[in-house]
Design brief:
Number of domains: 1
Radius of gyration: 37 Å
Strand content: 5-15%
Largest sheet: 2 strands, antiparallel
Distance between the termini: 83 Å
Helix content: 40-55%
Structural class: mainly alpha
Shape: rod-shaped
Number of strands: 2
Strand order of the largest sheet: 1-2
Length: about 160
């Protein structure tokens, strides 16, 4: 055996003998105190373990919810793409299925792709849905003559703006 290991074993044996002597001399009083100390340490370890398990449970629940939300968002995007691909007519109007929006339930959640009826008061954040950008009027080119009321990209002098 290694010399360091023999020394450690000898020290542990002496500690065990001295502990047994103390417990036997005091007629069980020391044993009761040691039992209470042992129970207190064990209780502290148990409470900290329960607290950690509770935190882990919350973290798992939050991760599970975020994963479900991510999959629902991806499903909404895929459904919107499918609606646009299924649009076979030559014109776009507000009464087509993709313009009216849609709602679908999947498992424990659901998704909705639509434009808000009255955006503004109660709506905060970004508006989500399918928008027909090609049918909007470009207000930058509505003026009469050579110079318009708005700016066109080649009329903007970025040097004048930053100076």
């Amino acid at each position: 055996m290694a010399p360091g290991l023999e020394l450690l074993t000898e020290g542990l044996m002496k500690f065990k003998k001295s502990l047994l002597n103390i417990v036997q001399k005091e007629d069980g009083q020391m044993a009761l105190i040691l039992a209470f100390v042992f129970l207190a340490v064990l209780g502290t370890i148990g409470i900290s373990f329960l607290y950690r398990m509770r935190l882990e449970d919350r973290a798992v629940s939050n991760y599970q919810d975020s994963l479900k939300a991510d999959y629902l968002a991806q499903a909404g995007i895929e459904r919107a793409i499918a609606e646009l691909r299924n649009d076979t007519n030559e014109y776009d109007d507000l009464y087509e299925p993709w313009a009216r929006g849609f709602q679908e339930s999947l498992g424990e959640g659901n998704y909705e792709v639509s434009e808000a009826e009255n955006p503004g008061e109660n709506e905060k954040g970004e508006r989500l849905g399918i928008f027909d950008e090609a049918s909007k009027i470009n207000l930058n080119v509505v003026g009469a003559g050579k110079y318009h009321e708005g700016w066109t990209p080649w009329e903007i002098n970025l040097g004048a703006i930053t100076a």
